[in-house]
Amino acid sequence: MLAVIFPAAGHAQDRTMPARHGGLEAKLEYCKTCHGLSGQGYMGYFPMPRLAGQQPEYLEAQLRAFIERRRTNPIMFNVAHVLNPSMMAALAAHFRDLNPRPFGGAPRGSLATGKKIFEEGLPESNVPACSACHGTEGKGQNEIPRLAGQLYAYTVGQLTGWRTERGQGTAVDTSAIMAPTAHNLTRSQVEAVAAYVSYLQ
Amino acid sequence: MHVVRKLEVMKRIGLKIAILVMIASTGPVWAGDGDGAGVRNCTWCHGTSGQGYMVAPRLAGQRPQYIESQIRSFHERTRDNPFSKQYMWGAVAALGPNAAHDLAIYFAAIAPKPANDGDRNLAARGRTIYLEGIPEANIVSCYACHGPNAEGVREIPRLGGLAYFYLKGRLEQWGQGYHSGPGSPMPMVASHLGPDEIEALASYLSFVR
To answer: Are the beta carbons of A78 and B196 separated by less than 8 Å?
Structure first.
């Protein structure tokens, strides 16, 4: 019995901030440490995506995808696997209502090309218009993510690494729909469209 | 054994602070102008080849943009921990942006040597916290910003191989309310770290090459 109690007590002593445990406020602060104080995103060693204004269904779906390893990301697996469904819902609802200015910093050389791809797609390469699903303002809907104001480096990373990060394993994953689209975009087309959406408010 | 090691460290720090005080008191005389003089002014405290000297962190191999941003934050007095106030605010007073840039490039190009002065028994725990954080306690992963090998990027510093005492001191100071540059998430990060976690992280990082 003692052997059970003592390690537990020692473990509790390691934490000198017990007041910060558990609550929604503390968890939001934890998210915002990496994703920016207003959820606008942040450039660490890796780009941390904008969560502000994101569709709650998309955020919750991605958190589940990290836990189930349909989406591979060692950091986000650790982050997500301690969250219960009601915490996920509360976090997603909070970020939906934030509206900071876009993070900025994307190259501006091919914004016109990006806009064209976003609005019209590339029929010759079988790339549909992004706006068809993500909305004319790039705000997304339901499980389809908002792209407006997303970090340039993040969007480039996702579109160029879709097949190695998204839709892993054998379980059904709605992100599979983007695989052929991402595949048919050239690197410079990816950069153009990522830059364009990064400036959308 | 732990106590003995701490006493050793404290003795070494005491001596080095004495040296720093002597040097700081002559500050205005050697405010940088030429190339060689500028470098020498740094290496007095930061060690020959910029490898660091206890409270004065290693500059060798540090991210050049980070070095520049810190010089700026000393100028603007946004980095306000006691040693910064005491030594660095004065030390950078005569340093213009071009000289700061040249010094940053100079030191960044020198190969860093790890301090290896942490507690080896804590290194494995420190590595786990570095990579994974402690999600249950809202402690974030260091790796997400500082990189897989603690090498840093852009204005985010290299942590690998910095001295145990320096790393520990910085993490403690953020928790106590001292600042670095504007917009740094570090005060928020460090406020969640307890003493055991700080010692483990500082130990691990001191061994990273």
So the answer is: no
Rounded Cα distance between B155 and B163, Å, is: 20
CATH number of A23-198: 1.10.760.10
Q: Test A33 with B188 for CB contact under 8 angstroms.
A: yes
Q: In terms of residue numbers, what domain contains B190?
A: 120-207
**In chain B, how many domains are there?**
2
Cβ-Cβ pairs closer than 8 A, A with B, add up to: 71
ipTM of model over 0.90:
no
Average pLDDT over residues A88-110: 97
Q: What is the pTM (predicted TM-score) of this model? A: 0.83
The reply to whether B26 falls in a domain is yes
Instruction: Copy the structure tokens of residue A77.
Output: 């697996």
Q: Write out the two tokens for A197.
A: 């959406």
Contact B137, A17 (CB under 8 A): yes
How many angstroms away from the CA of A192 is the closest CA of chain B?
Answer: 23
> Above pLDDT 90, what percent of chain B?
69
Domain boundary among B86, B108, B130: B108
List, in sequence order, every residue forming a beta bridge with B134; answer none if it has no partner: B139
Mutate to test the interface with A, among B140, B142, B154, B196 (most CBs of A within 10 A): B140
